[in-house]
Write a structure and sequence with these properties.
CATH topology of the largest domain: Tetracycline Repressor, domain 2
Distance between the termini: 55 Å
Strand content: under 5%
Low-confidence stretches: 1-17
Catalytic activity: heme b + (2E,6E)-farnesyl diphosphate + H2O = Fe(II)-heme o + diphosphate
Number of strands: 0
Function: Converts heme B (protoheme IX) to heme O by substitution of the vinyl group on carbon 2 of heme B porphyrin ring with a hydroxyethyl farnesyl side group.
CATH superfamily of the largest domain: UbiA prenyltransferase
Mean pLDDT: 91
Largest sheet: none
Radius of gyration: 20 Å
GO molecular function: protoheme IX farnesyltransferase activity
Membrane topology: Multi-pass membrane protein
Shape: flat
Enzyme class: transferase
Number of domains: 2
Number of helices: 17
Helix content: over 70%
Structural class: mainly alpha
Length: about 325
């Protein structure tokens, strides 16, 4: 790891009184990120054409959530050095001295094994294997390799956050399909504009941490161009999904409205002057970032509504 070792007193909690509390370990799980993982996985499971017993579904979503949290804990363990120098992450449990690096590592590894094994026992081993690969991809491929190596880190690494609906679908069906791949692609294409918008107004954090985000390596203008291009591609994908088996009239309305707003927001970011952005403290960029959070939840919520309507004989285009 760069800069400072996580085994130094700054990251092990040495010199701090008291033991780690439950809330400190819970914070390692990145609960806000876990919310998105749980929701998209649940939609993938419920949208699948194969019914799942409610108890099995509950257990499966629980273990997927634990696996997502384990990834977060291992991410914080590895990134403790850069977390310490970024204002946005300086209060995380390890740099704040509330949890030691060794504790976070043990916690993350234990939860990873627990989630994969019990998901396999509760549903099927294909879904469990997909969860194990997701954890590996996020921790090793993205956190340990891509994040500090390439400005395309969030593009490739975004796949890790796109797997949950595929896992949920696999719990129900035991495999993957065009529909689960579409849900994967929706999240995958959404990730770059979402994170690049954030990077526009916290660029100094990434500068200080030495993380090669696009805003650092190529500048904010390049990031603005990329946001617009990815948003246009995302809009095409999102609207086209309305005419597949997981879409329908309700989804189409949601997709048309949100993608019109999203493209408008990306265009506003693209045409922004850096001096103006600095003057108003990146108000447009922050507004786009907040909209991006609603964007994904609303699209998957619409897929869920279509699945419920289909089971009632009223969904889809039939």
């Amino acid at each position: 790891m760069s800069d400072v070792s996580i085994n130094s007193p700054e990251f092990t909690g040495q010199g701090f009184e008291g033991e780690a509390q439950f809330g400190d370990f819970f914070a390692l799980l990145k609960p806000r990120v876990m919310t998105l993982v749980v929701f998209t996985a649940a939609v993938g499971l419920l949208a699948a054409p194969v019914p799942v017993h409610p108890f099995v579904a509950f257990c499966a979503i629980l273990f997927i959530a634990v696996g997502g949290g384990a990834s977060g804990a291992l991410n914080m363990w590895w990134d403790a050095d850069i977390d310490a120098v970024m204002k946005r992450t300086a209060r995380r449990p390890i740099p704040a001295g509330k949890v030691t690096g060794d504790e976070a590592l043990a916690f993350g590894l234990t939860l990873s094994a627990f989630s994969v094994v019990f998901l396999g026992l509760a549903s099927n081993w294909f879904a469990a294997g997909l969860l194990a690969f997701t954890i590996f991809f996020y921790v090793v491929i993205y956190t340990m390799w891509l994040k500090r190596w390439t400005p395309q880190n969030i593009v490739i690494g975004g796949a890790a956050g796109a797997f949950p609906p595929m896992i949920g679908w696999a719990v129900a069906t035991g495999g993957i399909s065009v529909e689960s791949v579409l849900m994967f692609c929706l999240t995958f294409m959404w990730t770059p504009p979402h994170f690049w918008a954030l990077a526009l107004f916290i660029r100094k954090d990434y500068d200080h941490a030495g993380v090669p985000m696009l805003t650092v390596t190529h500048g904010r203008r390049s990031a603005r161009n990329h946001i617009l291009v990815y948003t246009l591609l995302l809009a095409v994908l999102a609207i086209a999904t309305a005419f597949t088996s997981v879409g329908g009239p309700v989804y189409l309305v949601v997709a048309l409205v949100l993608n019109a707003l999203f493209v408008k927001g990306a265009y506003d970011i693209w045409r922004r002057d850096e001096d103006v952005s600095e003057t108003d403290n990146f108000s447009v960029e922050k507004k786009f970032f907040k909209l991006s959070l609603l964007y994904l939840f609303a699209h998957f919520g619409a897929i869920l509504i279509e699945a419920v309507l289909t089971r009632m004989g009223m969904g889809g285009w039939t």
